Amino acid sequence: MKVKELRQKTEKELRDLLNRSQYKLGQLKFDLASKKLKNVKQVKELRRNIARILTILKSKNHNEKQ
Questions:
Q1: What is this structure's pTM?
Q2: What angle do CA 26, 18, 58 make, to 5 degrees?
Q3: How does pLDDT run across 24-52, given as a tens digit for each residue?
Q4: Contact predicate 30/16, CB 8 Å
Q5: Per-residue H/E/C for 13-36
Q6: Could you tell me which CATH number the domain at 3-65 has?
Q7: What is the C-alpha to C-alpha distance for residues 5 and 31, in angstroms, rounded to an integer?
């Protein structure tokens, strides 16, 4: 997901997306360990998306405090 799309979402939507992404990451890691995952690049992409979401959430919280 692109950063512009993430910035337009509300904090609640971002938290829901974060929870779903973290759950999916756990599933992908399990599939990777059991040799079921064909595209290992998905793990890297998902980790980066999670980092983007966390960064945007922190910046929104920082802006609200100021």
A1: 0.90
A2: 130
A3: 999 999 999 999 999 999 999 999 999 99
A4: no
A5: HHHHHHHHHHHHHHHHHHHHHCCC
A6: 1.10.287.310
A7: 29
